[in-house]
Here is the input.
Amino acid sequence: MISAHTRVAVVGAGLGGLALARVLQLHGRSVTVFESDASADARPQGGSLDIHAATGQTALRAAGLLDTFRALARPDAQEWRVLDPVTAATLPFPGPVHDDDSPEIDRGQLRGLLLDSLAEGTVRWGRTVTGATPLGDGTWRLSFGDGTTEDAELVVGADGAWSRIRPALSDATPGYAGVTFIEAGLDDADTRHPALAAMVGNGTLLATADSKALLAQRNGDGHIRVYAAFRAPQDWQAAEGLDIDDTEAVRAHLLKRFDGWDENLLSLLRSQDGGFVDRPVFVLPVPHTWDHVPGITLLGDAAHLMPPVGLGANLAMLDGSDLAHALVTESGVDDAVRAYESLMLPRSAKAAQDCAEALDHLIPPTAS
Here is the structure.
């Protein structure tokens, strides 16, 4: 097992990297997390997450945070409403097939819960890692954008889709999955948009047909996130002569694209507060694997970027807790990383395949 003095460097203060750091600290191990953001609230953290009993909750239990999570989570937000796109009639569709115990929590709340659990100074904010170089003795040197370096016996790339650590292990890069999600939002929805809030309900609303979908997801702060999802080339904006910052032009384009859908559903696009955000879906190859390299590994989206259908955050936290467990139980860093990768890589390959199939089911490659 690693000693309390083993230098573990985690690149990225997302959910997976923070879960790893928390479990290591619970076992008296030292860890430093390097994050390019200037602070915890430097940018929005995204929408609501359903945390599954077998994955995300397992990681939170290992982190000693499950009870605190449950005090913040919203079990009623597991509700799914599936509506007919033309009539808005409720359809008998059960929603995603997860375990029955998957309460929702806003990503920002969950990240704050993990951050607050760490020793002061664990996260080094404003530290942009540009790459990792082996030193030949099993240790690695991290390079930073400001010209400084840090050495570590173990480097963990937890830095997401466009990881700067991944190239040390793999030549794979994310590819466009053929689907884009256009995000909008309704602020203070129950007060300002009561009819739409009532239509969405406590959890998530879905309407889908002809290779496109409208989704609306309630967050814990009264905000409802709306997504218009469809298949299109990656350069669809240029092809349509659109600027995503031209809110009215994008709205008109979306209303045309969803022409014939129920007016109540289209009101989600007509009534949104603020602008639109283009969120194209990128994925890593399935399976994404690499030959073991001493002293370095990946977790979360850096290791297995997959479509956003409910598994990514859960797996990232489980990756972090599993790696921490291996580091405090196996005989050394190399044995720990091998044990972790032998568990994580096949698990993530299966999950990535499942997510790809789920995306194809939600938005089929060919309109029907």
